[in-house]
Amino acid sequence: MLKAFVLVCAVPFYVLHRLEALVLGRERSFAGMTQLLALLPGVYGVLLRVAFLRLALHGCTSACVVEFMTTFVTPQTVIGRNVYIGAYCNIGHADIGDDSLIGTHVMVTSGKHTHFFDDPDVPIRLQGGRDECVRIGRDCWIGNGAIVMADVGDGCVVAAGSVVAAALAPYSIAAGIPARVLGRRGDRREREEA
After folding, report:
1. Range list of β-strands (E), the chain
2. Strand 94-96 vs strand 78-79: parallel, antiparallel, or unpaired?
3. Residue 6 to residue 37: CA distance in whole angstroms
4. Is the pTM of this model over 0.70?
5. Cα-flanking dihedrals φ and ψ of residue 175, to 5°?
6. Which of 131, 149, 167, 171 could crosslink 110 through cysteines, CB 3.0-4.6 Å?
């Protein structure tokens, strides 16, 4: 009942976003609205953010949490069931699998090629770029302050402060700058059972 009420409360924000999109474009309007809603603290802020995202994102269920000051870049993002996204995150074009946990201050970019910089005679801002969907698999844990620029397979753990610049295979445990695989989830259990 509460989620239905909050969804109704999110409709004016969604309508405003769609009207703004006629003037500003869909992505700028969407990013601006997520910035506005990111300012709302507490459980009511979480509920209203998720309700808006259910209406505006390519895919989002009510069974997720998006904490204070977390913003989104594009409505093309998909958030799975039971996903937790901590405070002060910035999420680019991403597909986040079910049951994943994303710590605070995490940046998920829209891939590694958002800005081209090959020509030193042309300002970087004029060289364009290419957005790519970064996939974070199901049941992943992305530690605080990590930067994710490449796909993360199912069941991965990414240590706090790491920079994922290359795709991680499922169940990898990775850390560092750039992130390197240190092991696999379940390896210790397999050694203990042997």
Report:
1. 59-60, 64-66, 71-72, 78-79, 83-85, 90-91, 94-96, 101-102, 107-108, 134-136, 141-142, 147-148, 157-158, 163-164, 172-175, 180-184
2. parallel
3. 13
4. yes
5. -155, 155
6. 131
